[in-house]
Amino acid sequence: MLSRAAPRRVLRPRSVEEAAAVLADLPAAEVLGGGTVALPDWRRRGAPEFAVHLGAVVEPRRLGSRECGALVTLDELTRDARVPTALRQAAASVGGPAVRAMATVGGNVVAVRPGCVAVALLAVGAVGEGRDRGAPGESATFSLDDLFDSTDRLLLSTHWQSTTESAFAKLAVRSAGGPNVVSVAIGRTADTRAIAIGGPGTRPHRVAAAESDWGEGASAADVARAAAVGALVADDVTATARYRRAAVETLVRRLITTIEEGG
Amino acid sequence: MTTAEVNGRPRDLPEDGRCLADWIRDDLGLTGTKIPCGSGHCGGCSVLLDGRPVLSCSTPAVVHEDGRITTVEGLAARQDPLLRSFVEHGAAQCGYCTAGMLVAARAYLDECGGAAPDEAGARRALSGNVCRCTGYTAIVAAVLAAGRECSGA
Ligand SMILES: Cc1cc2nc3c(=O)[nH]c(=O)nc-3n(C[C@H](O)[C@H](O)[C@H](O)COP(=O)(O)OP(=O)(O)OC[C@H]3O[C@@H](n4cnc5c(N)ncnc54)[C@H](O)[C@@H]3O)c2cc1C
Ligand code: FES
Ligand code: FES
Q: Could you say which residues form the signal peptide (chain B) (predicted)?
């Protein structure tokens, strides 16, 4: 029989200030997004006494051409033409319709399992806005890396500066819910280039050497080779690190070619 | 006490953080919704929330104040043509996945908005629902047939 572990209460603050104060008062309380990672975890490992859900707060629901709230669902992201292509493609690649209707951008960034949307956000140069649980009264800006796996930050929204040409692709064993092999996103502005890699067993990360090769006009094939060399990937039951590098090389080459050909 | 509407009836939500599936099954006695995996991976626990499929094993009931929830019992009560079509096409064997399949299929047919459904769309809509018995062919055929019936095509 399944364990029935559940929090004693789910608190639903009405404002950012109230949410920050609750989280400061209850250090063991867990922030809840859509629950697609948290609830199965609670069942396996036991639930916290309190969870905090931001559904009644306005700020984390905002979505625009340069901003995505933490509570925006992946389904909403796929349907909004204003957001960069890589974000829409990454969101559409996650699970089936029922997962996307619940899973949030905040949960994708913080849980990074495997963080497909987080990879796309890295490629468009996004940062997070929110509160540090140790300093609940002050707004804070976080790098995405600071948010990955963090339990002491409340993420309210993600922002990116400029409209970027971007694209995302991933290799997975099965389209909806099968283990991911690797995910890749790239982004380009007039003067920046970003290539981000993610997948099981690795935190989403950028590959600096490949990015500078791209910026200096190297061919898509050369940039892709450099990305494969720089990618931090691991062996697991789904794929070897060698296979993952080969996948990174193929996906990066395809994405750069697509963007450069204006597709 | 906060409430949500389940199959058209207002119901008091629990105060604790139990998941939607446990509340629906244990408190409301609507045991048509199954919990085959409890980890978000099979889609068998799907219910409609405001017309969209969600995994009832992976969301606390209490956060769905004023939500409109439809379970497989709700589809049966309004004699949804999908149910008859599943029977006619032999689209269930053990039946463990069936409630989730029906709910996901209803969301898809509603999204078609009266237009005839197509196989690729139906397969995409059911991509998060796992069946260990039937191999999907009969399920997809049942959804397409019910969709044609609804659209008059
Ligand atoms: C079948 C299936 C397939 C999946 N496939 C993929 C996939 O291909 N790619 C992928 O990236 N993911 C995948 N996932 C994982 C998951 O659905 C996503 O990562 C999802 O976006 C997590 O968001 P959530 O809102 O459900 O997180 P939750 O479960 O609500 O939260 C996860 C964690 O993040 C923390 N958190 C949530 N929101 C905040 C916030 N605003 N501030 C601070 N902390 C917060 C929570 O405390 C918790 O620790 C899949 C899941 C399932 C069930
Ligand atoms: S029981 Fe909810 S997805 Fe399997
Ligand atoms: S009929 Fe047995 S799992 Fe689908």
A: none
Q: Using the Cα atoms of residue A160, residue A88, residue A121 and residue A252 in order, give the sign of their dihedral.
A: negative
Q: Is ligand 2 within 6 A of the CB of residue B45?
A: yes
Q: C-alpha angle with apex A137: A135 to A139, nearest 5 degrees?
A: 85
- β partners of residue A182: A171
Q: Please give the distance, rounded to the nearest whole angstrom, from the Cα atom of residue A94 to the centre of ligand 3.
A: 23
What stretches in chain A show pLDDT beneath 70? 1-4, 175-177, 263
Give the best residue of B15, B48, B62, B101 to mutate against chain A (max A CB count within 10 A). Answer: B62
Catalogue all structural domains in chain B, each as residue range(s) with its CATH number. 3-75 (3.10.20.30), 79-148 (1.10.150.120)
B59/A contact by beta carbon, under 8 A: yes
Partnered with residue B55 across adjacent β-strands are: B46
ipTM summary value: 0.96
Residue whose entry in the numeric block shows the structure tokens 């609804």: B150
- Total-model pTM: 0.96
Please state, in angstroms and rounded to a whole number, the distance separating the CA atoms of residues A171 and A182. 6
- Interchain CB contact of B66 with A (< 8 Å): no
Q: What is the set of domains in chain A, with CATH numbers?
A: 9-159 (3.30.465.10), 165-260 (3.30.390.50)
